[in-house]
From TrEMBL:
<dbReference type="GO" id="GO:0016301">
    <property type="term" value="F:kinase activity"/>
</dbReference>
<feature type="domain" description="Carbohydrate kinase PfkB">
    <location>
        <begin position="34"/>
        <end position="285"/>
    </location>
</feature>
<dbReference type="InterPro" id="IPR002173">
    <property type="entry name" value="Carboh/pur_kinase_PfkB_CS"/>
</dbReference>
<dbReference type="InterPro" id="IPR029056">
    <property type="entry name" value="Ribokinase-like"/>
</dbReference>
<protein>
    <submittedName>
        <fullName>Adenosine kinase</fullName>
    </submittedName>
</protein>
<keyword id="KW-0418">Kinase</keyword>
<dbReference type="InterPro" id="IPR011611">
    <property type="entry name" value="PfkB_dom"/>
</dbReference>
<dbReference type="Pfam" id="PF00294">
    <property type="entry name" value="PfkB"/>
</dbReference>
<keyword id="KW-0808">Transferase</keyword>
Length: 308
């Protein structure tokens, strides 16, 4: 089949309610006056990756289960306004939603509504197969319907990436994603020994590339058995919110790889995209554009990374 899509994004469509708090952790109090206010907008992990890839000029298609509710309308509007194709299937429990508490330093605490997911949630297999067959690559979010779709994606022959977020290296739910993807992203935040976890993923799974992001410390790349470090990139504007930085990193990295860049160079693409995301207020769903990304990568490219 003709490849009409560069990246098929599965899962992670939803809505966040943003609450700015005076500090994290938030001390107990009967009430707080919130400024600059409380705002609800579409944009969870899959949405952010799709927007990031689209802003970088990649043909992007998003597939997820979306509810017949107000939150679903916000998700549809986001994709419609951005011009990103969305294939949706009914979500019996409703559209995924969360509350993000955002501190003055940009850190966040996310509270996800677990009642929105059902163990029986599934994508229509013929639809997954058709969309995957038309794509160069598929990025799989670790939300409920996506795990069951992994065998279908593998059968379609499309390369896979996934983001395990703050996996502790032990939770079995994440393992099927970690071991079936060709490129694995994860945060080092909950890992006692990030290198050991990264090497375990490559030893037991399919991945040749594992990237562990470490916030202000940059990111660690394991490729062909060699662990290298990519320093964090200094943003060109003040840091206001870390929400979506990991998704932006993944988008930038995938953009680099689909351009044929070496994984070390792709990690620099990711670092630049992630730094930009930290300058975007959590109430917006913006991402760096192709020209800006390439210009900033050229500016900071030497040295792109260093051996650990």
């Amino acid at each position: 089949m003709e490849q009409r899509t560069d990246v098929l994004v599965l899962g992670g469509a939803g809505v966040d309610t943003i609450v700015h708090v005076p500090e994290l952790p938030l001390p107990y109090a009967d009430s707080y006056m919130i400024r600059p206010g409380i705002e609800t907008r579409a944009g969870q992990s899959g949405d952010f990756v799709a927007v990031g890839l689209h802003c970088l000029g990649l043909r992007t298609h998003h597939l997820d289960m979306v509810g017949d509710d107000h939150e679903g309308e916000l998700v549809r509007a986001l994709h419609r306004d951005r011009g990103i194709p969305l294939t949706e299937m009914p979500a019996p429990g409703g559209t995924k939603r969360a509350v993000n508490l955002v501190g003055p330093d940009g850190r966040r605490l996310s509270l996800y509504d677990a009642d929105r997911a059902r163990d029986s949630d599934r994508f229509d297999e013929p639809t997954v197969r058709a969309l995957a067959s038309a794509a160069r690559h598929a990025h799989v979010v670790i939300t409920q319907p996506c795990g069951a779709a992994l065998p279908v994606l593998r059968e379609a022959g499309v390369s896979l990436s996934t983001d395990l977020h703050d996996w502790d290296g032990a939770n079995p739910y994440h393992e099927s994603f970690a071991l079936q993807a060709d490129i694995v992203f994860l945060s080092s935040a909950a890992l006692a020994d990030p290198e050991r976890t990264m090497r375990d993923i490559t030893a037991r799974g399919r991945a040749r590339i594992v990237v562990a992001t470490a916030g202000a410390e940059g990111a660690y790349l394991l490729y062909d058995g060699e662990l290298t470090h990519t320093p964090a990139v200094t943003p060109h504007a003040p840091v206001v919110d870390s929400n979506g930085a990991g998704d932006a990193f993944a988008s930038g990295f995938l953009f680099g790889r689909l351009r044929g860049e070496h994984p070390r160079r792709a990690a620099l693409y990711g670092a630049v995209a992630g730094a930009y995301a930290c300058t975007v207020p959590s109430t917006r769903t913006d991402a760096i554009g192709r020209e800006d990304l390439l210009a900033q990568v050229a500016q900071v490219a030497s040295p792109a990374s260093e051996a650990v």
